[in-house]
Amino acid sequence: GVWCPTVWENGTVTQLNTSDYFTEAKWVSDDGNIILGNAHNDLSNHVEAALWLRADTGWQVNYLGVLPGTFPGYGQAIAYDMNNAGDTIVGYNEFNWGQGTGFVWTLEQGMVSAADFLEGEGFVFPEDFQISTLTAISSNGAVIAGFGLPAGGFGYEGFDAIRENVS
Fold first, then answer.
1. What local confidence, expressed as pLDDT, does residue 167 receive?
2. Are 61 and 39 a contacting pair, CB within 8 Å?
3. Any idea what the Cα angle at residue 82 is, between residues 81 and 88, rounded to 5°?
4. What is the signed CA dihedral for 54, 58, 64, 66, rounded to 10 degrees?
5. pLDDT, tens digit, for every residue of 53-98?
6. Average pLDDT value for residue range 131-155
7. What is the pLDDT at residue 94?
8. In Å, how far are 65, 85, 109, 164 from 106, measured between CA atoms?
9. How would you write the chain as a 3-class SS string?
């Protein structure tokens, strides 16, 4: 069978998204009012990075999208972490089975590849280094962490990118 993002609250189980795709929740805010993960969007036919907000009527899903070139039904995006302001989210985008990269979603830019975002912030990675995913962002958004493959592809290496213009 498939699994789906689920919340247990006060003995009540709530499925945040139901579909025939494998989707999940990966992160919850300290106050329990925001959940990150991924969900199938029937309108786009993609498994998209998603954010759920607690509302008076239950949980409201906000689809964050996928990177261009993501193949419907085989590719997906999943959100892993968010800064406290809620304006920057990091995660992983799989274009097709096993081929993917990290992403950054911001209010201003929407979803962009990790390489494009970090390059735009002035970060320089070694030649042929491939960012695999972004796994975490600090509460103030100043540090983004992830891992990738160096040239030659012999084992993953972790990294952190310290953004200077963030307080």
1. 65
2. yes
3. 125
4. 140
5. 999 999 999 999 999 999 988 899 999 999 999 999 999 999 998 8
6. 92
7. 97
8. 12, 11, 5, 17
9. CCCCCEEEECCEEEECCCCCCCCCEEEECCCCCEEEEEEEECCCCEEEEEEEEEECCEEEEEEEECCCCCCCCCCEEEEEEECCCCCEEEEEEEEECCEEEEEEEECCCEEEEHHHHHHHCCCCCCCCCEEEEEEEECCCCCEEEEEEECCCCCCCEEEEEECCCCC
pLDDT confidence tier of residue 165, bands split at 50, 70 and 90: confident
Q: What average pLDDT does the chain have?
A: 93
